[in-house]
Specification:
The complex is a heterodimer of chains A (about 650) and B (about 350). Chain A has about 650 residues and is α+β, with helices and mostly antiparallel strands. Chain A is built from 19 helices and eleven strands. The longest helix of chain A is centred in the middle third of the chain and has 54 residues, at about 215-270. Chain A is extended. Helices cover about 70% and strands about 0% of the residues of chain B. Chain B is globular, with a radius of gyration of 21 Å. Chain B starts with a helix and ends in a 7-residue tail after the last helix.
Chain lengths: ~650, ~350
């Protein structure tokens, strides 16, 4: 990546922006972030226009939603790069259309509100129906005060608590969304207290209106009649909305397209700096293709552009203006591309660290195959993956499909090695060994595999530290050389003891004690370097305590990280165990016709679904917690270049700009 | 315990380092006795606030950008803590940070009510960066409370504002709406406390419960002395959770005829803390400062003890918030040429 700064004339802004958006290679940096010298250069009008576009988009969406208009039509002028002109056109037309739509929608809302009110009244009256008294009497009670209200349900307890010293009845009748319909009674002399309590609990009155007369049953009949009249008026409103949708559909869709394209441009402009006549653009550009883009830009603006490019600053270059984070573009071969999702879920590699995608992908697939080794089930997974990858049934899951395909293929390979087909262990001979019959060997193998993967992670960390000239990390970090020294020392000592050969105490001290001492010194030394060489950190009891914890944690973690790989063997053995179980179940029903193959098939489906998921989670866990934690920080930011969305069938027009 | 030691090893190490960055009483006293705002800001530039203040020292120093820089530092501190946590403790700290999002939303609503310009409203917003979920562009462009509700979309604030909008329309006062937002925030915050593991929950209930007590007492004093609210309103407008302040205390406080009686009915330590002040006819703000000083002492004490637990993290964040308050109070005092004694009266932390 290269830092690029470009100064262009205001008049050239539309063509320059279009060229930038067409190439789609510049990851824009906000002008406020580029350094002290750019203070005050922020382009306020672009900010205001962006707010206006947010508002237009929201209003446009509301109008389209109200008229049930969906989709984006292909119309002329969609790629018009003229935000100000588009904004003023949209503002003008939107006002007219909104006013017409609003009239209808307001009527509709009033009807809906009235319908809701009548429904709630109906529910109250149904509750009061057994009383058989005139509803007017309820309003005129001499000694009692009665109201019905809608209260936010979460405030009900508080409402009751606030009335603890006042005789009252709070009767929730029905819950509607987050609110409850409540009938509230108190003595008439306490009416004010009740009202204050209800008001402060954010209650809204839903009293029985005076125009309803007679008994509750009679009042219910009146409500039903009104409800029917409302339904008829609602039908008329629907017709009016349809008419409006037909009249304005094309125009709205065209404006929607223009807002989309120009909204992206305005959002990009918010990153730019501005003087009276120029615009300053700052961003990141992939080194590959840099000259081609800059030449094209220069061509469209007739050479009226000043460009400055530079290499990214080192993160430790300056305390006052910290180096800007460089975006990372993950660039893996097509085969490994799907596994970028695994890495991105954990974090984006920062620009200066190794992208773990290829290794993480390979390990994931390998561990999945080891745990799920079965020729038949693997083939089904691979087939399912292929269908997903080719988007034959479901669209949009191509990456997941390829991952599944790769996992299925390795499961097939390990199936041949284990001699397992659709859970049957005797159908084909094992090319290597059967997990369930060689459990001890497999567990040892898994531990050796764990040692290898851990060592790989540590080695990557060391390479990364050398690459970044991070010497404290290289020598003293628990995942640096001191860590490798301790880890391989521990592996050697453990092997010696297991094989009964023993190790002399000085050797143990040299292999384990010394590296732990170095790890212990890491934090105090780092502080010492920051404090210009003063030894204060070595006298800080808290820091020393933390370093002690760090050492303890490191020692425990290496052991658990290694033993964690036993799960690879355990899940392969459990796969075979589940196979035995399915076969046993199938055998139990062999007398019923077709029952045995049905149970066997269901068992296989169950194992593919459940164990496939569990094994994938375990492989992911080993990738994330055992492998990544050795070297991968994942604190980078993703490369998101500015791209103008392409809407086909457009006519370009690059006139118009906005002034500071 | 051992699980917590592993879980909190990293956040604890980070928070310990951050505690060491808090200003010492001597440093704060240096600011109080500085020759003016510029001198104070230059002193701050030698502390942990240097990174945020760097840009401002180029030209004339205005107070508002300095305050924004301090607030950015607070948000950065929250951010560093949040990044070191996961699971329910992380959710709890994220909810604590949302307090400032609520304040920002209230600032927007005030802007709408007073028809202030976007620039004026923006000046009052706390810079939450990536932690803000509010669609500020749309909110700032909103011209009515209804538009604010529309802009809030699916955020949970929309429902709260909608429920209170009826009262806003009728009373033309934002007070009920702001109270509703506060209550809703603290309700969620308490839910986040309840979602912690049992050992963390016990600690957080005590720490956050004391915080809720202080807020409740503060609010009761204001409701009684400034807003003259009824007992029912006071009850409904206070928090349902706490450590020593329970429903019965709030009911008694609501029924109290005046502040001295209200304070006399409070449980200790609040009664002991505030009674001498009410006897001297102190103002509400003086009582608030006393409460917050008590809270600061509690937070300071919370830094000691068994290290691998949520209490240390909460204590640090409260101390950091108090430090930002104190710095803003000191700078404001300097701006109006107040004497060190006058400034000291507004400071929560030790000087």
């Amino acid at each position: 990546m290269k830092r690029v700064s470009m100064v262009i004339l205001d008049g050239d802004l539309p063509v320059a922006t279009e060229e930038m958006g067409r190439y789609g290679v510049v990851h824009l940096i906000n002008i406020e972030e580029i350094g002290d010298w750019a203070t005050g250069l922020d382009w306020k009008e672009a900010d205001e226009m962006s707010s206006a576009y947010d508002s237009y988009r929201r209003r446009m969406q509301a109008v389209m939603q109200n008229l049930a208009i969906e989709g984006v039509a292909v119309r002329e002028e969609l790629n018009l790069i003229a935000p100000k002109m588009v904004a003023s056109r949209v503002a003008e037309r939107l006002l007219v259309i909104e006013a017409k739509v609003k009239r209808v929608v307001d009527r509709e809302q009033r009807l809906q509100e009235e319908a809701r009110r009548l429904d709630l009244l109906g529910e109250q009256l149904e509750l009061l129906a057994p009383l058989g008294i005139d509803v007017a009497e309820l309003r005129g009670l001499s000694f009692l005060y009665f109201v019905s209200v809608l209260v936010p349900t979460e405030n009900l307890d508080r409402l009751r608590g606030s009335l603890a010293r006042t005789p009252n009845v709070i009767l929730p009748v029905k819950r509607k969304d987050d609110r409850s319909l409540v009938l509230a009674f108190s003595m008439r002399k306490d009416a004010e207290v009740l009202e204050r309590a209800l008001r402060s609990a954010y209650a809204q009155h839903q009293d029985i209106p005076e125009e309803l007369v007679g008994t509750p049953v009679q009042a219910l009949c009146q409500i039903r009649t009104r409800r029917m009249a409302l339904a008829r008026r609602n039908e008329e409103i629907e017709k009016s909305k349809q008419a409006l949708a037909i009249e304005y559909r094309d125009e709205l869709l065209r404006m929607h397209g223009q807002l989309t394209v120009n909204g992206v441009v305005v959002d990009a402009w918010r990153h730019f700096g501005a003087t009276h006549e120029t615009r300053l653009v700052s961003g990141w550009l992939p080194a590959k293709g840099e000259s081609e883009f800059l030449a094209a830009l220069s061509r469209v603006v007739g050479g009226r552009v000043v460009v400055h490019t530079e290499e990214p600053l080192s993160p430790t270059a300056s305390h006052r203006s910290p180096a800007l984070p460089v975006p990372t573009r993950l660039d893996n071969p097509a085969l490994m591309k799907p596994f970028e999702t695994l890495v991105k879920t954990y974090g984006i590699p920062n620009y200066r660290e190794i992208d773990p995608t290829p290794l993480a992908g390979l390990l994931f697939v390998l561990m999945f195959g080891m745990m799920f080794g079965d020729v038949g089930q693997g083939a089904i997974l691979a087939l399912g993956g292929l269908l997903l990858a080719k988007e034959a049934v479901i669209k949009g899951n191509s990456a997941l499909g390829w991952m599944l395909f790769d996992c299925g293929l390795t499961a097939v390979i390990f199936g041949f090695l284990y001699g397992s087909v659709f859970l049957l262990e005797e159908m084909i001979p094992a090319l290597w060994f059967q997990p369930i019959r060689n459990a001890e060997f497999f567990i040892s193998l898994a531990i050796v595999f764990g040692v290898a993967v851990n060592s790989l992670g540590l080695t990557i960390n060391v390479v990364d530290a050398v690459w970044n000239r991070d010497y404290p990390r290289l020598f003293l970090d628990r995942n640096g050389l001191a860590g490798i020294w301790f880890y391989w020392g521990a592996v050697f000592v453990a092997t010696q003891f297991i094989t009964g050969r023993g190790v002399a105490l000085p050797v143990v001290a040299a292999l384990l004690g010394l590296p732990l001492l170095l790890i212990f010194a890491h934090d105090p030394l780092t502080h010492m370097l920051k404090d210009n060489g003063t030894m204060r950190a070595f006298a800080d009891p808290l820091l020393l305590f933390q370093s002690g914890i760090e050492v303890f944690d490191a020692a425990i973690r290496y052991m658990t990280n290694t033993l964690s790989y036993i799960r690879v063997a355990a899940f392969a053995i459990s796969h075979a165990g589940m196979g035995l179980m399915v076969i046993a179940f199938a055998a139990m029903v062999h007398q019923a016709p077709l029952a045995e193959p049905v149970v066997y098939a269901i068992g296989n489906v169950f194992v593919i679904a459940l164990e496939g998921l569990v094994v994938a989670i375990q492989a992911l866990r080993l990738d994330y917690y055992e492998f990544f934690t050795k070297f991968f920080k994942g604190d980078g930011i993703a490369y998101h270049p500015f791209v103008i969305p392409r809407i086909p069938g457009s006519i370009k027009n690059t006139s118009g700009s906005i002034k500071k | 315990m051992s699980v917590n030691a592993v879980r909190y090893a990293k956040p604890h190490a980070r928070v310990r380092a951050m505690v060491s960055e808090l200003l010492s009483p001597q440093q704060k006293w240096g600011l109080v006795t500085s020759s003016g705002v510029e001198d104070a800001v230059r002193q701050l530039d030698l502390t942990t606030y240097a990174a945020e203040l760097a840009v401002l020292l180029k030209g004339d120093i205005a107070l508002l950008p300095v305050e924004k820089a301090l607030e950015r530092n607070l948000v950065n501190a929250y951010d560093r803590v949040i990044r070191s946590l996961d699971g329910p403790p992380r959710a709890l700290v994220e909810w604590m940070l949302r307090r400032f999002e609520v304040d920002n939303l209230k600032a927007v609503l005030r802007g709408v009510a007073t028809e202030a310009s976007q620039e004026e409203v923006r000046r009052n917003l706390l810079p939450l960066g990536r932690h803000s979920r509010l669609p500020l562009g749309e909110l700032l462009a909103a011209r009515s409370v209804a538009e604010v509700i529309d802009s809030l979309g699916n955020l949970h604030y929309a429902r709260t504002v909608r429920e209170a909008s009826d009262r806003y329309e009728r009373e033309q006062s934002l007070f009920p709406m702001e109270v509703a937002l506060d209550l809703d925030h603290f309700r969620h915050l308490w839910s986040a406390v309840e979602a912690l593991s049992s050992s963390d929950r016990a600690i957080a209930r005590r720490v956050m419960g004391t915080r809720f007590d202080v807020i409740n007492v503060d609010w009761m004093l204001r409701y009684k002395a400034i807003y003259h609210l009824s007992p029912e309103e006071i009850f409904n407008y206070t928090l349902p959770h706490g450590h020593k302040i329970d429903d019965e205390v709030i009911r008694r406080a609501g029924s109290a005829p005046d502040l001295p009686v209200l304070v006399a009915d409070l449980p200790d330590p609040y009664r002991q803390l505030l009674q001498p002040l009410t006897k001297e006819s102190a103002n509400v703000w003086q009582l608030e400062v006393a409460l917050n000083r008590y809270w600061w002492q509690q937070a300071k004490a919370g830094l000691s003890g068994y290290p691998f637990q949520i209490g240390i993290i909460l204590a640090y964040l409260f101390l950091k918030e108090a430090e930002i308050h104190d710095l803003e109070a000191i700078l404001e005092g300097k701006r109006y040429n107040r004497s060190p004694d006058e400034i000291e009266a507004f400071v929560w932390g030790e000087l």
